[in-house]
């Protein structure tokens, strides 16, 4: 039965049958200053104070060079289980990832961007469903908690 449920789900939600970023539309640049969050509670936003829309988590200004911060947040993302690169736009210091759930392979999309002032914006959102049971916010909190160690590394 445990193997049958993911197969049945994949028939209804084709993106759940794929691996990595497969089955997801190609990543495009997001203007993070113009984010419009849906009314559904299946997204989470981490951004500096004063950011609009209002973030769920306030990120600090980092003392690191913006390029180093961009490399560190990408390293943190890719160190997580079932997280895959979806697209990168290095000139904008913006990267996109797909995270897959362990049980049913649900895809979530995560966009990260480092601002020229070493600010950090992370936006995590579910592809399917109305609620995410707090998964997107927990993901951003975990990535932000892992970031200082990545910045301190070689």
Structure characteristics:
alpha+beta; single chain; about 150 residues; 3 helices; TATA-Binding Protein; about 25% strand; 6-stranded mixed beta sheet
Summarize the structure in short:
It contains three helices and six strands.
Q: What proportion of the residues form beta strands (DSSP E)?
A: 15-25%
Rg is: 16 Å
Total domain units: 1
Indicate the structural class: alpha+beta
Helix content: 25-40%
Spatial order of strands in the largest sheet: 2-1-6-5-4-3
Per CATH, the superfamily is Kinase associated domain 1, KA1
What is the succession of H and E elements? HEEHEEEEH
Q: What is the first-to-last residue Cα distance?
A: 46 Å
Shape: globular
Outline the biggest β-sheet: 6 strands, mixed
Low-confidence stretches: none
Mean model confidence by pLDDT: 89
Report the total helices: 3
- According to CATH, the fold-level topology is TATA-Binding Protein
The CATH class: Alpha Beta
Characterization of the model:
By secondary structure, this protein is of the alpha+beta class. It contains three helices and six strands; from the N terminus they run αββαββββα. A six-stranded mixed β-sheet has the order 2-1-6-5-4-3, with helices on one face. A hairpin with a 5-residue loop joins strand 5 and strand 6. Helix 2 packs across helix 3.
